[in-house]
Amino acid sequence: MVDMGGLWGGFYSISQVIARLAYINMLWIGFTLLGGIVFGIMPATITVFAIIRKWRQGEKDLPIVKTFWRFYKREFVKANLLGLVLAIFAYLLYLNLSLLQGGAVLFLILRYILLFSCILFFMMALMIFQLYVNYNLSFLQYFKSALLIGLTYPHFLLLMVVGMIILQYVFMLIPGIIPFFSVSLLAYMMTVVADIIFNKIDRKDTSKEKHNEVVPT
Q1: Which of 39, 55, 71, 115 has its CA 20 to 30 A from that of 7?
Q2: What is the pLDDT of residue 7?
Q3: Distance between alpha carbon 49 and the CA centroid of its chain, in Å?
Q4: Cα 165 from Cα 179, distance rounded (Å)
Q5: pLDDT digit string (tens) for 70-83?
Q6: What is the spatial distance between Cα 215 and Cα 212, in angstroms, rounded to a whole number?
């Protein structure tokens, strides 16, 4: 019987995480291609976030391929609708920024407003995948809640951005790992940060409930 405690146990746990991340990244590529790339990328990406969430909740031994396929198939239409809305928003912001090239004061003001809108959109986009796999909300609520969380916890979203920059540097330094970790490692990092935010939200909600129980109505 091999003792997996101590240092060797740590190495084993890390190797397990690395293997799982590489596995779901390859599945992400396969299922993205299965959907013809355009229709496959959103459900495949959301499925990666969903599986990482399950792992972090302690479900280490779930059947990965079966779970991936089930979630991918179930969320295919809704995930593509979500992607379509995000793509339309992004295109409209880009189009308006491209058109506002004049030097007039009005154009300058509108450009700054649009740049601020781009920041809000980016904040919303960072959180919307996490909300999708963690909470059962209405379609519109995903967008509203993602934006509200982004405005409430901008320092954690900044941490996500720093993590994305670091990972991009690593991928540029070691391009050979891109097919194995490009999406899964990014999703894992974002999930870790999002879990901190959700824990803070849950603690606030719990504190409010306790306060309402104490304070007479």
Answers
A1: 55
A2: 64
A3: 6
A4: 18
A5: 999 999 999 999 99
A6: 5
